[in-house]
FtsX-like permease family protein
Amino acid sequence: MLKATLRSFLAHKGRLLLSALAVLLSVAFVAGSLIFSDTVSRTFDRLFASTAADVTVSPKEGLDEAVPSGRTATLPAALAERVRRVDGVAAARAEVDVNGLTVVDENNEPVGPTTGAPTLGNAWNPNERSPVELTSGHAPRGPGQALLDSETADRRDVRIGDTLTVIAPPGSFEVRVVGIVTFTTTNPGAALVFLDPSTARTKLLGDPRAATGIAVDAAEGVGDEQLKRRVAAALGAHTYDFRTADEQAESDVEQLGGFLDVIKYVMLGFAGIAVLVGVFLIVNTFSMLIAQRTRELGLLRALGADRRQVRRSVLTEALLLGLVGSTLGLAAGIGLAAGLIELMGLLGMNIDADEMVIGWVTPVAAYVVGLGVTFVAAYLPARRAAGVSPMAALSDAEVAGVGRPLRVRAVTGAVVGAAGAAALVGCAVSERTASAASLLGLGVVLTLIATVIAGPLLVRPVIRVLGGAFPALFGSIGRMSQRNALRNPRRTGATAAALMVGLALVGGMSVASESMTASFDRQIDRTLGADFVIQNTNFLPFPKEVTDAVRDTEGVGLVVRGRFTPVAVRLPDGDRVETTAAGYDPRLDEVANITYTQGDSAAALADGRLAMDRDFARDHGVRVGGTVPVEFQGGRSAELTVGALTDQDSAEGFGTQGGLYFGLGTLERYAPGGQDSALYVNAAPGTSDDELRARLEATLDPYPQVQVRDLADYKQLVHDQITVLLYLVYALLGLAIIIAVLGVVNTLALSVVERTREIGLLRAIGLARRQLRRMIRLESVVIAVFGAVLGLALGLVWGLCTQQVLALQGMTALAIPWVTIVAVVIGSAVIGVVAALLPALRASRMNVLAAIAHE
């Protein structure tokens, strides 16, 4: 049996190649994502471990900034002197590290990265742990001198002697580049500007007595934990945060972890789609191969092989296929990881591909996925093969399921489909976002399974409609192509299911994204009353001088400032909610249209008061006039009175949890030092919008990071952000389509082999090669369009339910992208034509007499 199995596998290796490609793609994405994330993690672990001080003293913050506030947390630089006197301290340095700078050259062009990486301003404190070293020029020696990292200098053609303008939180200032520093470790993609310590404190922090942290080096023989305890005792254990080198490195890795997790989960998403679609391909391939080997299997049974041996033989072939696909997929995954590392290099993150990390988890995961997918996919065909009786096989009966009743499928599909439909209905009527989202996920999984199970039941009624025009358009060729697609509903359903999965995903996401876009458009139209909004391109806050320049611009009538700050609110029901709150100037009503259910803007923005979303307030037992304890960044807290309740659909809380906002006076009192994130500007009487826009753009020319946006620009900004999410979905669709095309090609190729004698007879009675190719192409088109119709129908249902979940968050508009849907159906027909090219060409080249004599 083993010899027979190996010979059978090698005899059909050409037919199994396309199935192996599906396994290869699945494994490649799993292995590539693990190798890439492990390599980047190891690289940054070494970077942070080698650059972290033995002990780091930092300001105690406590709240994470989901939205940047522009506030830089500081502590007294004089603490360094106190730390130096602690027993066991070899050295202590007051550090300055400021994120979110903008640096421009003499032509007012940005010098920093354009890939989203930050531009950092630092104090020049060279030591053995520095990630950079001075390679040309000299150290900065005054307020007008700076160092720049070599990669930024090369990328932007900056040389020693050039003048740069640094736009920092306290304001802008010019520096002359007097030296170039080169990274001695991995460059995380940031641009680095170094100033002398005194200038860094004054220009970057706005306070010559402040620092962002104290770096402490231990004397020989003193452990980090021991030194940490001593420094904490000297400064007050509850006054600042104290971390050892290992703890600081771990904290830095956690901050980077979000970025790495996004890449890892995206790639694992690709792997999941590849696995899901690949299962259908492998099931179909083995089902058809077993159908074609009916006589062979019958002979084995007649010679004494029992059912277990036949089943084991088929599963062994599947495992061999999985072994080959997994091995090739692991190699492809290594190549994919290397490509990602090169891509990161183009984006400014330099990772050494020679130090690629391939841990034991990667090959184990690769082979578990590859072998698991093929084993699971081949199990049902193997059971069918084991059920072949010697007499049935010797009489050429098929085991592919042709003509077998579909009652079991009908019952199972109906039960699973009813459960899925009930979950989706529950999602649509639910009034709580969390439960609605859970029901949506359950409903999507169950309806997908039900559609796959019941797909063969839909083949005959749907394809009769889809291919109904074929006889009229293509005559007898069209009729035969339609009947070929109807001949084996199980095979047609499984082939179309591969395409259906991808198109259901894109259909659902298209409806959701189109609805989100329409909802945001409606909300912007309804709430934004300003002529223009001034914002940073990357939504980072900007310095006060930008606000002053806008106010001084001719034709400006009103400027309302908007800021953000992290807060934690303790609510009457005992919950503590961390969220982002906003602060606004008093004349908010003139630039925004807010619907209040209780109170008004005057009450919301009054000193010591705040506004809150009505649903959030109701859920947590908050009433107008009640007080809530609010914790601010930096340790300050206050008891604020609820002055107004808003309708979140039209509130200015920008969708943050709770919709909290208050007056800028309140914000300045409890969280001073923040920066404006947005300016809402109205034109003065007698000034047209076009005139004001031109003047504002001229005013903001020295600040290339700041943009002037009107209503249409603001909508486009939202559209672009949603489009980025869609690109990911379309990429997943592309992968699904690639594997689905492989499935259609494989099905048609095996179908041609299965129908070799039939094709020979058709050719013998006068069917031309061109007609034969057309028949196979039409069969492929109708199968592909069938998959598209099922996928889009399922996707539309998912999209409608997703929109109901979004409606609970205030995005109530429903929009269906009919253009996308029509384009997908047309594209599916094109896919069908492309997938049929090789099988049709092969069929047309058959020798007629050899085909007739084929058994």
Q: What stands out?
A: Residues 390 and 605 are 86 Å apart (CA to CA). The first strand starts at residue 55 and ends at 59. The chain has 26 helices and 24 strands. Confidence is low (pLDDT under 50) at residues 396-403, 650-654.
